[in-house]
Amino acid sequence: MTGYMDIDAAELHRLLAENKILLVDVRTDDEADRGIIQDALNIPLHMIPLKMDELSGDKPLVFYCHAGVRSAQAAAFMASKGREHIYNLQGGVLAWGKAGYSLHQRKK
Fold first, then answer.
1. Active-site positions?
2. Residue 82 lies inside a defined structural domain of this protein
Protein backbone atom coordinates (compact mmCIF):
# COMPACT_ATOMS: atom_id res chain seq x y z
CA MET A 1 0.00 0.00 0.00
CA THR A 2 1.34 3.43 -0.97
CA GLY A 3 -0.50 5.49 1.65
CA TYR A 4 -1.80 7.96 -0.93
CA MET A 5 -4.32 7.98 -3.77
CA ASP A 6 -3.99 9.15 -7.37
CA ILE A 7 -6.60 11.64 -8.58
CA ASP A 8 -7.27 12.99 -12.04
CA ALA A 9 -7.42 16.60 -13.19
CA ALA A 10 -11.22 16.81 -12.98
CA GLU A 11 -11.18 15.64 -9.35
CA LEU A 12 -8.44 18.14 -8.48
CA HIS A 13 -10.43 20.91 -10.18
CA ARG A 14 -13.46 19.99 -8.05
CA LEU A 15 -11.41 19.97 -4.84
CA LEU A 16 -9.88 23.35 -5.68
CA ALA A 17 -13.34 24.82 -6.25
CA GLU A 18 -14.31 23.66 -2.75
CA ASN A 19 -11.13 25.24 -1.29
CA LYS A 20 -10.57 22.23 0.93
CA ILE A 21 -7.03 21.17 0.03
CA LEU A 22 -3.40 22.17 0.31
CA LEU A 23 -1.90 21.96 -3.19
CA VAL A 24 1.87 21.54 -3.60
CA ASP A 25 3.86 21.82 -6.82
CA VAL A 26 7.07 19.80 -6.40
CA ARG A 27 8.70 20.96 -9.64
CA THR A 28 11.88 23.04 -9.73
CA ASP A 29 11.73 26.83 -9.57
CA ASP A 30 12.46 27.05 -13.30
CA GLU A 31 9.57 24.71 -14.11
CA ALA A 32 7.18 26.55 -11.78
CA ASP A 33 8.15 29.87 -13.39
CA ARG A 34 6.49 28.57 -16.57
CA GLY A 35 3.15 28.43 -14.71
CA ILE A 36 1.52 26.70 -11.76
CA ILE A 37 -1.95 25.59 -10.85
CA GLN A 38 -3.64 28.50 -9.09
CA ASP A 39 -3.14 28.66 -5.30
CA ALA A 40 -0.38 26.01 -5.30
CA LEU A 41 2.67 26.24 -3.08
CA ASN A 42 5.92 25.56 -4.91
CA ILE A 43 8.16 23.32 -2.82
CA PRO A 44 10.68 21.46 -5.01
CA LEU A 45 10.79 17.74 -4.30
CA HIS A 46 14.22 17.82 -2.65
CA MET A 47 12.92 20.40 -0.14
CA ILE A 48 9.89 18.38 1.04
CA PRO A 49 11.72 16.79 4.01
CA LEU A 50 12.81 20.24 5.19
CA LYS A 51 9.35 21.79 4.76
CA MET A 52 7.26 19.05 6.39
CA ASP A 53 5.96 21.43 9.07
CA GLU A 54 4.34 23.57 6.36
CA LEU A 55 2.49 20.48 5.16
CA SER A 56 0.99 19.42 8.48
CA GLY A 57 -2.67 19.79 9.38
CA ASP A 58 -5.95 18.16 8.55
CA LYS A 59 -6.53 19.52 5.05
CA PRO A 60 -6.08 16.95 2.31
CA LEU A 61 -2.67 17.35 0.69
CA VAL A 62 -2.34 17.14 -3.09
CA PHE A 63 1.04 16.96 -4.83
CA TYR A 64 1.72 17.49 -8.51
CA CYS A 65 4.68 17.81 -10.87
CA HIS A 66 5.23 17.68 -14.63
CA ALA A 67 4.02 14.13 -15.29
CA GLY A 68 3.15 12.68 -11.87
CA VAL A 69 6.34 10.79 -11.01
CA ARG A 70 8.04 13.21 -8.62
CA SER A 71 4.74 14.09 -6.98
CA ALA A 72 4.10 10.39 -6.34
CA GLN A 73 7.47 10.27 -4.57
CA ALA A 74 6.50 13.28 -2.43
CA ALA A 75 3.13 11.72 -1.62
CA ALA A 76 4.73 8.41 -0.63
CA PHE A 77 7.29 10.22 1.53
CA MET A 78 4.64 12.20 3.41
CA ALA A 79 2.53 9.06 3.86
CA SER A 80 5.57 7.26 5.30
CA LYS A 81 5.81 10.03 7.90
CA GLY A 82 2.24 9.42 9.04
CA ARG A 83 0.49 12.23 7.16
CA GLU A 84 -3.02 11.23 6.11
CA HIS A 85 -5.32 12.33 3.27
CA ILE A 86 -2.61 12.54 0.61
CA TYR A 87 -3.22 12.65 -3.12
CA ASN A 88 -1.12 12.70 -6.28
CA LEU A 89 -2.27 14.37 -9.49
CA GLN A 90 -1.93 11.54 -11.97
CA GLY A 91 -0.24 12.82 -15.12
CA GLY A 92 0.80 16.12 -13.50
CA VAL A 93 0.49 19.45 -15.29
CA LEU A 94 0.50 17.57 -18.58
CA ALA A 95 -2.82 15.94 -17.65
CA TRP A 96 -4.07 19.24 -16.15
CA GLY A 97 -3.46 21.03 -19.47
CA LYS A 98 -4.82 18.16 -21.55
CA ALA A 99 -8.07 18.39 -19.52
CA GLY A 100 -8.35 22.03 -20.58
CA TYR A 101 -7.35 23.71 -17.33
CA SER A 102 -4.91 26.60 -17.28
CA LEU A 103 -1.74 27.46 -15.40
CA HIS A 104 -1.09 30.81 -13.72
CA GLN A 105 1.95 32.96 -13.02
CA ARG A 106 3.65 31.96 -9.81
CA LYS A 107 3.59 34.49 -6.99
CA LYS A 108 7.09 35.14 -5.70
1. 65
2. yes
Q: Which pLDDT does position 20 carry in this prediction? A: 86
Within 10 angstroms of residue 13's Cβ, the number of other Cβ atoms is: 15
d(Cα 1, Cα 37) in Å, to the nearest integer?
Answer: 28
| The total number of structural domains that make up the chain | 1
With a pLDDT cut of 90, the percent of the chain lying above it is 89
Q: Which residues of 30-69 are buried (b: 16+ CB within 10 A; e: fewer)?
A: ebbeebbbeebbbbbbeebeeeeeebeeeebbbbbbbebe
Cβ atoms 44, 26 nearer than 8 A: yes
Question: What is the domain range of residue 52?
Answer: 5-98
Closest listed residue to residue 77, CA positions, set 98, 48, 97, 104: 48
Question: Residue 72: which H helix or E strand, with range?
Answer: helix 69-80
Tell whether 108 is covered by a domain: no
Q: What is the pTM of this model?
A: 0.95
CATH of the domain at 55: 3.40.250.10
User: Is residue 103 situated within a structural domain?
Assistant: no
CA-only gyration radius of the chain, Å: 12
